[in-house]
Task: structure prediction
Amino acid sequence: KKSREETCGEGSGVEILENRPYMDGPGGNGQYTHKVYHIGMHIPSWFRSILPKAALRVEEESWNAYPYTRTRYTCPFVEKFSIDIETYYKTDPGEHVNVFNLSPAEKRQTILDPIDIVKDPIPPHEYKAEEDPKLYKSVKTKRGPLSEDWIQEYKNNPGKYPIMCAYKLCKVEFRYWGMQSKIERFIHDVG
Result:
């Protein structure tokens, strides 16, 4: 859906380079995709005119072996930069302590940022009433809308309501001396 919304002519949107099944990869067997995001339309034209073409594209490689997925973003123009996102989908309300089996050192460097799909604020320009879990009721499953204390309702009635948590581990690498930790911290804070 987002790919269609972002595409508005040549040099914009998303280009799918590869979409194929894989065996024995991250998470076992799954589907591999390789995409290119043409981001020129998101950059002011005066700035776009001085950048090389390689700076106006972001590549995404994705391995989907549900309930595990891995997505890696790179930009050919910035060779030593990547964002890696691993996801585990679990049927719980977000109570796994170490789903990624991180070492004690990795755990110390990790910042936990729980997201509540009902309570967390949404920027006005991204809000869509038809996607609001406080308003949406599924015709097919007859579930919804969710109340403000939906997680506690689940905990009070285990097994009565289906639930899923997406655990995400986001790693940023920016290997340029002098700027590495500042840029990595900025991306984690903003992203």
About this structure: The chain has a mean pLDDT of 84.
